[in-house]
Every structure is written in C-alpha cells, then in structure tokens.
Amino acid sequence: MCRHLGWLGRDVSLSSLVLDPPHGLRTQSYAPRRQKHGLLNADGWGVGFFDGATPRRWRSAAPLWGDVSFESVAPALRSHCVVAAVRSATVSMPIEVSATAPFTDGRWLLSHNGIVDRRVLPAAPAAESVCDSAVLAALVFARGVDALGDVVAELGATDPHARLNLLAGNGSRLLATTWGDTLSLLRRDDGVVLASEPYDDDPGWEDMPDRHLVEVAPDGITVTPLKGLR
Ligand code: GLN
Known about the structure:
Blueprint: E1 3-13, H1 14-18, H2 25-28, E2 45-51, E3 54-60, H3 68-73, E4 78-86, E5 103-104, E6 109-115, H4 132-143, H5 148-158, E7 163-169, E8 174-178, E9 184-188, E10 191-195, E11 206-207, E12 212-217, E13 220-225
Antiparallel strand pairs: 1-4, 1-10, 2-3, 2-4, 5-6, 6-7, 7-8, 8-12, 9-10, 9-11, 12-13
The structure holds glutamine (GLN).
C-alpha cells in the first residue's frame, strides 16, 4: 500500500506537509508506521497542489527521500489544497512517472492506496498508465468524482480482494474512502489533513473507520458509511 496525504485549508508550504513532519511522507517513504502491505514506499512519489483553480503536479519514479531538488523548492511552493503520495508498486505494475499518483482530469487530483484486479475495471483509453491505480483513476474521472463512494462500493463487491483507499481534492473539497487500509484525520486551526497515517504524535489525530467516505469541505467534515453497510 502506498501512503497518501491531503490538505485543505490556508496556504501552507509543501515542505511543511510532506518533508518537515517527523513521520511525514518523506519518512513514510522508508519507515512507515502503519503500513500493512509492503515495507517501504520507494517506487516514486507525487505532490499535486492547486495553484488557484489549476492542479499542478511534481512526480518522480525515484524515492522521495533522495530528491534534493524537491527538498530545495518545496518550502517556496504554497497551496491551500494538496494531494500527495509515496508509492510502493504492486507486483507486476510498471514503475514509471505516469503510474505515480496523483492522477488528474484537469479538475481533480486523485491518489489510490491499494490494489484492484484490472479485469474488473472497464477499458480506460484515457488512463495515463496500465497501472491498476491509473486505470481506476480514469474510471473515477469518467463516472465523476462525486460518485467516488458508489464506485468503491461496487468495485469492492466485484473484487473481494480489492483495497480501495482513495483520496481526491479539487481545490475546495477533499473526498476520501477507506476500504481495506488506514486513514487518519487532523483538524488544525488553519485547515484539515487527511493521511494514510499520522505524520506526528499530535493527540488530535482521529482514526477513520473502514468502509467509509470522508468529505472535507469549507462548511465541515462528514463521515458516511459506504453502500451496503447502512
Ligand atoms: N496498486 C498501486 C500501484 O501499483 C498502488 C500500490 C499501493 O498502494 N501500494 O501503484
């Protein structure tokens, strides 16, 4: 399982979210604390952020821990909405930039922690890569990200071995699902963090329940059971 992080709030630097926290994504790239599948996340990384309404991405197929260029520039890049990930490639999936989250349709940034059998996914000519997460992202974009919870519940029913923790942001909202892996939420004075695992030992981190949809919006946070559990 990869690890991902979302931010919605005031403008903050990318380094303050990804590099500086003691157990942030950089540390999670070699020493995650809650990872159940895989030991480390060395197969690439991506940081997506909104520049006004425009999503921008910086991705690499190399480990985040050694990226001195990103380390140099990240303190100067600031955003109110961020979707970032470090990757542990699923066996047989390509290790390439185009397989690395976040994916985008030009409006949303989207990351996937997990695995899904590509045979249950419809053909996706728009997918950036043949990687399961890229094909899944193309499906979510085609269905509309607002249907994220339905898509995850349907795929989870079709592929019982699927793990479907997804995280998406569009500059004014974050949407995330839990389906087989961990997700934590931190309410800060300046915004909200969603992360596969806490980036520090702040007692304010809340563990999200499995098989739920979490929505972070300017008017509040909602946590809803996914279809089939109601
Ligand atoms: N299946 C995806 C990939 O290969 C995500 C892997 C993961 O969550 N570790 O990139």
